[in-house]
Amino acid sequence: MVEARQRIVGGILGLALGDALGAPFEFRRAHDVPAPIPAFELPWMDRPPGSWTDDTAMARNLWNSLIASGGTLDTDDVLRRDLEWLASSPPDIGNQTVAALREHQRGSPNAAKAVFDRRGPEVSAGNGSVMYCAPLGLAYADRADDLLEAAPALSAITHWDERCKTACVAVTLTAAALVRGDDPESAVRAALARVAGREGGEELDYLTGAAGVERPIDGPDQGFALFTAGVALRAAGEARPFEDGLREIVSLGGDTDTNASVAGALLGALHGVEALPPRWLARLDEATLIRREAEALAGLVA
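^ that's the sequence the OP posted. Answer follows.
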């Protein structure tokens, strides 16, 4: 029997592992991703194998904020941490995320909405908030109903589009259910049922990842937040093994680090930390510190 603490630690480390696994192959077409995937063997942006991207960096801002606040979302504190991270000149950050954070720096009210209004819906449903939202679900495992408000509030720091908020609700509800030990297929179906009435939730076929195996990486954004969430939910609902599931997701191409980070969080929460590949953990940047932080979050919940 996998305990809730193991699932929370597994979810946190799983997110970072998925991120680092997919990072070297980001934005490649499926036919350009090598097979078999050389896991934790290639650098990312001149950084050593096992390095993670803005996905894990922003997830750490979230989970460390949750730890500091006793397990409750404080969006002002998350934003403060995000702005401090932005000031450190990270090597990579999404266009919409940086635009929203710059609006916050200028003191704009409803900064993410201002970016949404300026850019329009065609390019506003990126996966920059869904990529790091899973720790919120891990922390709210015993009060999942609160996620219906907390997850959209988290997304709205940088991503105002309802498709982004809906994707975050679905992912966090699933993460919470997996920590509780719910049947994975039932957990995903229940999460999808909860978002069915939301604006942005009408594209449930897309949200379940049924729209195709390779997400488009050229042209206008047609709901990448939904695709990323859908790929991860499908992997969790089918109870795929951690390593095989993430390798398959990276092989799809596209936004490989983000797709794998969300799936890694859900599969880690499903299987628990003991199921994570030790050889991957040995190569993961700051793995010891991340595990310590994950255990601190788990201590607040279970």
